[in-house]
Specification:
It contains six helices and four strands, in the order E-H-E-H-H-H-E-H-H-E. The chain is an alpha/beta fold. The protein has a four-stranded parallel sheet, sandwiched between helices.
Length: about 160
């Protein structure tokens, strides 16, 4: 059971800037000694995917094709221009020595942040457990996420 001073985050966005903010906040909370839980739903699941093709049915495969690539293929919420924005932001982050998303995610994992995929989103988007990085917890539903949020001082929706 979560401590009553935990931090729970709901990550619904798969945009680079929002995922960057989510992992930065999670790392800060975990570094401050807070139990930190990240619940990834819909497009947010991309931040914890391996990047392989997903889906079994026609629509699931189409979504898997459009959504492939995992965390390294995430584009910014604005000025993406078909991938040019992602390339530009990665170069700018590197030139300013800003930690890339994959390293932020690994730092969060190393600090004990729990990464929880949404069961319903995985079913709708035809994403299997083996499509996710090994470090994620078992998938869970809204009731589990709410239970964590009830025991948190901070709950964020990103």
């Amino acid at each position: 059971m979560a401590k009553d001073d935990a931090v729970t985050m709901i990550i619904i966005s798969g945009d680079m800037d929002k995922v960057f903010a989510a992992f930065s906040i999670a790392i800060g909370a975990a570094a401050a000694g807070k139990e930190t839980n990240m619940f990834f739903t819909f497009w947010g699941i991309k931040a914890i995917q391996k990047g392989n093709f997903t889906g079994q049915g026609l629509f699931g495969r189409m979504m898997g094709l459009l959504n492939r690539g995992g965390i390294n293929r995430i584009g910014p919420s604005r000025f993406n221009f078909g991938g040019i924005g992602r390339w530009m932001f990665k170069r700018m982050m590197k030139s300013h020595k800003i930690t890339p998303l994959e390293e932020l995610r690994q730092t969060a994992i190393d600090l004990g942040v729990k990464l929880l995929p949404c069961e319903t989103s995985m079913q709708v988007m035809e994403i299997k457990r083996e499509d996710l990085i090994d470090e994620v917890e078992d998938s869970c539903g809204v009731a589990t996420m709410l239970e964590m949020a009830f025991h948190s001082k901070v709950t964020l929706f990103i």
